[in-house]
Specification:
Blueprint: H1 5-8, H2 18-33, H3 36-52, H4 60-102, H5 118-157
């Protein structure tokens, strides 16, 4: 019996909750809003608005139409974009966690750092910075030692010039 990808991972095959429906709607809307045709449609709306200015004698109502429309669209898009960003960052975090957990020798504490407090994240950041600086010093020491060894060998292989 073949199982779908949703069934293998324990997810429901169909979205039934309001959250699931909103997530699908937000993803579709974000995809559409990011498309060049959506930008061209917005430019067309503004162009029509500008052209109709003289027809409506640039009235307050004429100005109110564009202001209200853009305010409503902006207000709604904030929530759609935030939902999409939350989902995207979670998927990236899950992928990174999987990589950390799969790497031999990696510290598994990094797989769930998104659950740490700001103070704990800062402490972990400082610890990582210190480790990186220590590693850099170690690499520089090895490079310097290697260069000294190469110079010593080069000097040892030189023969005195004959007169």
């Amino acid at each position: 019996m073949s199982r779908t990808n949703h069934q293998r991972h324990g997810a429901r095959p169909t979205a039934t909750t309001i959250s699931d429906r909103f997530s699908r709607f937000a993803q579709a809307t974000a995809g559409w809003a990011g498309h060049p045709i959506a930008f061209l449609a917005a430019v067309l709306v503004v162009a029509v608005w500008v052209v109709t200015g003289p027809i409506f004698n640039y009235s307050d109502t004429w100005q109110l139409v564009i202001n209200t429309g853009t305010t409503i669209i902006t207000f709604l898009m904030v929530f759609l974009i935030q939902n999409t960003q939350n989902r995207d960052i979670l998927t990236v975090q899950l992928k990174l966690s999987e990589l950390v957990l799969a790497m031999e020798g990696a510290e598994n504490k990094f797989a769930a750092i998104e659950d740490l407090s700001d103070k704990e994240l800062e402490e972990l950041h400082n610890e990582c910075r210190n480790r990186a600086e220590m590693t850099l010093r170690h690499i520089e020491q090895r490079r310097n030692a290697s260069e000294r060894e190469t110079a010593r060998r080069t000097d040892g292989n030189r023969r005195p010039a004959r007169a």
